[in-house]
Amino acid sequence: MSHDQNFKNLILDYPRQAIEFAAASEAARLGDDVRILPLREEQLKERLGERFRELDVPLLLEWPDGHRQALLFVFEEETEPGRFSIHRLIHYCVDIAELYQTERVVPVVIFLHPGHFRESLSLGSDTRVYLHFSYLAWPLFGLKARDYFDSPNLVARLNLPNMHYAPEEKVEVYAQAVRGLRTLEPDRERQIKYLDFVDIYANLDENERQHYQQDYAEEIETMSAFADRFIEQGMQQGEATILMMQLEEKFGSESIAAHRERIETAEPEKLLQWSRRILTAETPETIFH
Length: 289
Hints:
Elements: H1 3-13, H2 15-22, H3 24-27, E1 35-38, E2 57-62, E3 71-78, H4 86-99, E4 105-111, E5 120-124, E6 129-134, E7 136-139, H5 154-158, H6 170-184, H7 188-202, H8 206-215, H9 217-251, H10 253-265, H11 268-277, H12 284-288
Parallel strand pairs: 3-4, 4-7
Antiparallel strand pairs: 1-2, 2-3, 5-6
């Protein structure tokens, strides 16, 4: 399982909410007009034979009036805190600051599992500190899940299974995460995508799933109905595309224009029936009547 990829998707899909959740003090100063852009991950190499140093998710924030300089948010995911290197993070931040010619960089590190990690580093002598570096730590395991049950922040709700809770609360935590996804994300495709995210990190066993099905039957029905509609819609689009390709191949592009609306609104079963008829049809009209 690639935790890096899971969180990369999450942050790129919901950059503002990720910043609001992980860096609340910085988010409060952004304003509604800020533009958030993902950046190229690989940084320039000093020598061609070297490996790229890669950030999980660098985000560039810009303001349309140019009043404030661009601001870089550097997100990095660390599954095991013991593997985290603050020296490596310093390299990342300095490199990207040089590349984009800015001193405005906010490093954020996501920690999934419990453990000790260094939060700052000072370099100097007995008389003076010449370099001091720190970052925003985002230890999900240390947050109390119940504190975020009603959060309007979708990134927080999706990460409820990664927070701290008692074993007997696991099903409720899962249900609150799914409820947040259902109520805060209107896009159907993203609902399906991030239901997988919740499933991965909740990791319910068979007994817990049965418990969820019994206690949250109404919500399961809503999500199941949505999933069925989503799948059916995908089938319809696929069948429609195939039929229009067949029409163009046999009767030319004008045949598509004449029947496009009918094809795009037909049920998958009807589209399949028409695709069979096209094999023996002498005119487009004989397919549809």
